[in-house]
Amino acid sequence: MPTPPLLALRGVCKRFGVVQVLKDVELEIRAGEVVALLGDNGAGKSTLVKVISGVAPADRGVIEWEGRAVQIRRPHDARDLGIATVYQDFALCGNLDIVGNLFLGREVRNYGFLDEVEMERRTRDLLEHLTTGVPDLRAPVVSLSSGQRQTVAIARSILGDPRILLLDEPTASLGFEQTTLVLDLVDRLRDRGLGVLLISHNMGDVKALADRAAVLRLGRNNGFFDVNTVSQEQIISSITGATENVPRRMAPREEAW
């Protein structure tokens, strides 16, 4: 029997008022792979991320974790499973240094006092595994480049050893060198066995990094692709609707909600 994916969505639906944002969406993420989530503005990508991260729970459908049905009703549920999210705005405190940002809200204490030495050691060990050229750990985050801030945001998200990482447009505001830094970082995360969901509009990043691509159009699946074998034009056609490729559901499932 094949190993089930880390995370699988089966027939997920989400409505806000009278607007049906997601309709029967399917998605699978396996350990050690990068899945690109693509679609035009309004396709439902951000809502799908909110469903997976517990910010906006699904109305109907099944979410499976390693083959068993689970419910993600709150961000706490996602974190307990091992799902971490890095949003496009980084959500960092610019006036705090790197160590302070990584351990904000989960500070290490020794006999009731902050253990700054231990937190700095863990921060350095983590960044050295993720990237080259570790910046000054005591520099305020506001002084870092956009690429370095993205690295800090990703490092903070994996401090709790997640198994799946959701990245929302991680290179949208970065230059070439900074983009290369972040893409190298994501590649290292894949090598460490994490499953990564990459939300991006940059087809160059997708072709360079992703293993598979899932396209949403108007809140529905409009194609699954092996990035190594499909052309960029085929993916773009699916995004724009030039080709309608709504897949059949992967397998019938009893709905959990």
TrEMBL record:
SUPFAM superfamilies with a match to the protein in the record: P-loop containing nucleoside triphosphate hydrolases
One of the Pfam families matching this protein, by short name: ABC_tran
InterPro entries with a match to the protein in the record: AAA+_ATPase (IPR003593), ABC_carbohydrate_import_ATPase (IPR050107), ABC_transporter-like_ATP-bd (IPR003439), P-loop_NTPase (IPR027417)
Domain (ABC transporter): residue spans on this chain: 7-243
GO MF assignments: ATP binding; ATP hydrolysis activity
Keywords: ATP-binding, Nucleotide-binding
Domain of life: Bacteria
Identification of the protein by name: Sugar ABC transporter ATP-binding protein
Species this chain originates from: Streptomyces montanus
